[in-house]
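Researcher: I've been going back and forth with a colleague about how Putative competence-damage inducible protein might be arranged in three dimensions. Neither of us has a model we trust, so I'd like an independent prediction. The organism is Isachenkonia alkalipeptolytica, in case that matters for your notes. Sequence below.
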Amino acid sequence: MNAEILSVGTELLLGDIVNTNTQYIAKGLAELGINVYRQSVVGDNPKRLKSSMEESLGRADLVIVTGGLGPTKDDLTREVAADVLGKKLILDEEILRGIQGFFDQIKVTMEKSNRKQAYLPEGALAIENPNGTSPGILLEEGEKIMILLPGPPRELQPMFDNHIRPRLKKYGQGLVKSKVLNIFGIGESTMEAMVDDLMEAQDNPSLAPYCMKEGLILRITARARREEEADAMIRSLEEKVRERLGSYVYGTDHESLEEAVVEALLKKEYTISVAESCTGGLIAAKITNVPGASRIFPLSIVTYSEASKNTLLGISKENLKSHGTVSKETAIAMAKGIRKKGGTALGLAITGVAGPGGGTAKKPVGTIHIALVLGDRVFHEEKRLLGDRNRIRHMAAKHALNLVRKAVMEQ
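Model: Here is an independent structure prediction for Putative competence-damage inducible protein. You can compare it with whatever you and your colleague have in mind.
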């Protein structure tokens, strides 16, 4: 079975709303082994909506339409779908009673316009919507299937999971399973070069790179008849990827970099204190966002000024004057100072020029110094980051966390 997803709503075309429904449905269909060949968006215009539905039905076996099932005049999905399939709209008294009961429960008078939500194209199956007043609609015409779902994600997602997925499972081409490997500390082109032959040689399982906001990912996808077969295929390819990329792989699926860092520290029973300058507490915020971080993270200080570096971390004025606040020497002194103050196994520090001003020829905007002290070992990294102030600070915090992760892994 081949599928298309058609999203309805002028607000989507204008960019007022992020279209998360398409992503959710596409992922669900892929897991069922149903190919999604096209995704499209159309505004609340009956002529264009009709044309889009007809085109989708002409190409695909399954068309899932989201949005346009509400009570207002511009909600036209059910009417247009009935027209396209040549079916009459018939009032379903049971659905109408359910809608009326919803409004009675919240003690609000039901408007006449809400009655339109109780109409179904003849022969259609209503899909229960426990989180809203618009039921979903399933239509079958010959070998074609059209499914209409409401736009709000809190309504659509449980309807898709509880009713649509079970009905479509029989149409899937076996089981499709994916695993994501999270990558940090390497460029996209370099990563691709390191695993290019694996991507070229593999069809099932497949290996595909993506560049995301949080870093790079490699997605391994396997098709099989049974889950155990898919798992074995994924595991075999994952081992080969990890051999190539080594410590650049920091986690899998939804695991964040900070979660990987906290997990590594907990495993080693290491504690860490952090001194931040240019990131202004972002590193601390990321660490404390992870449950259980309090066991390894007793102290964080933002030493944004030169004076605070002197008074709180014990860095001499002479040191600061001779090397500057943005330097390898200052970063290392900060790491040693915060480790001593916190009485922790590790001391992490960061200083830099986040911009947009303040840079020099020798230390341009984006210059970052990160230092880590662990036992008698001192680690230092200098980065030249690009982007606006927010991106530089965000990436600087991630590079600092990654330095901790790599250092702990080596112990």
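Researcher: What would you highlight for our discussion?
Model: I'd start with this: The chain has three domains: 2-171, 175-252, 257-410. After that, consider the following. Residues 2-171 form a domain with the Molybdenum Cofactor Biosythetic Enzyme; Chain A fold (CATH 3.40.980.10).
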